[in-house]
Amino acid sequence: MTLLVNLLFSAQMTMPKLSRSVWLSSTHKLLLLPNTTRRRVFGTVLTLPNLPRSSGHLSMPSSTEPFRRLAYACVGFRNKEKKNLCIFPPPARPPIIFCLLPSFVLFPRSQMASQLTYQQLAKVFDHAILKPEQTKADVVTGCELAKKYDVKSVCVKPCDVKQAAELLAGSDVLVGTVISFPHGNSPTSAKVAESLQAIEDGAIELDVVINIGHLKSGSHDEVEQELREIITKSKAKNPKVIFKIIFENAYLTNEEIVAACKISERAGAEFVKTSTGFAKSGHTIEDLKLMRANVSDHIEVKASGGIKTLDQVIAILNTGATRCGSSSTDQILDEFKQSKGL
Q: Is residue 160 among the annotated active site residues?
């Protein structure tokens, strides 16, 4: 049984507040992953949800400078659900651990991360300004952030498109909005009118929520006809408009996700998208892989919902997805800059 245990001790220091992940060096990070089995081994069990799973066994990094004087110990294991648990004894207890099952919890940063430039990563992001309580002042702040970080686009509420277009005029940041958001249950005529108004106000990317109820009813021809009408009439007004069809995968079976992929492609969309970010759950790596496998190469995949860390973004990109919708854009890009020493 191969184990990894890192013990660094100082009675004068206390444990830091632990977040979703902890950098041990410039190239290695400790990932805290969800686990359905709760155990206690002379310490405190921490379980943090919605993180990408990793695998692999590595030796201890040569540099652990951030923790050189810190009381620190960890053991992870993989249970039958293939999810990891990290155990951190509090500093007041002796740094002694018994491991129940074998597995490392120290993983390298993805190869993709080392190959990405800042510009490439920034252009993955649609910065979301979609919360119902967000004000006109929040739109100003969000658009300034989008310009500062040079992201691909902002995604604002339909009522804020004109303001965002004015704020972003002359920049490389595109203006996007959402249609029939977040439930997709408006009649087709309303979706068409909303799309045309958004284009008139300055939107160039439209994220349209599919009619979830009709999709789940098996009315695939009806759903496809609606999307085709929205896309055709919108592109007649501006052929450069990009359509992303939001599925809201939290409510769909795998078979329904596959059907939505086929429907969206036939209707003429450029993207398929996982989620609104307002359902009971957001993107998953499994859903992204499924979507990527069920559209043609020229159709892109966008992840949304619960994207808050750089490691999540890297895991998303590793599935073949090319765009991420997030309201945590600045934190993620700052994390990337820090990891690169920028």
A: no
Catalytic residue among 29, 273, 287, 311: 273
- Options 207, 244, 287, 311, the catalytic residue: 207
pLDDT tens-digit series, residues 147-204: 999 999 999 999 999 999 999 999 999 999 999 999 999 999 999 999 999 999 999 9
**Strand boundaries in the chain, DSSP class E:** 21-23, 28-31, 44-46, 75-78, 84-88, 106-108, 125-129, 153-156, 174-179, 205-209, 242-246, 271-273, 300-304, 323-326
Active site residue 311: no
Domain 114-340 has CATH 3.20.20.70: yes
User: How many angstroms separate the CA atoms of 271 and 267, rounded?
Assistant: 11
Nearest alpha carbon to residue 152 among 195, 202, 205:
205
Phi first, then psi, for residue 223 (nearest 5°) are -65, -45
Q: What is the side-by-side strand order in the sheet with 21-23? A: 21-23, 28-31, 106-108
Whole-structure pTM value: 0.69
In angstroms, the CA 15 to CA 29 distance is: 17
Domain ranges for the chain, please list them.
1-108, 114-340
235 counts as catalytic: no
pLDDT at 281: 87
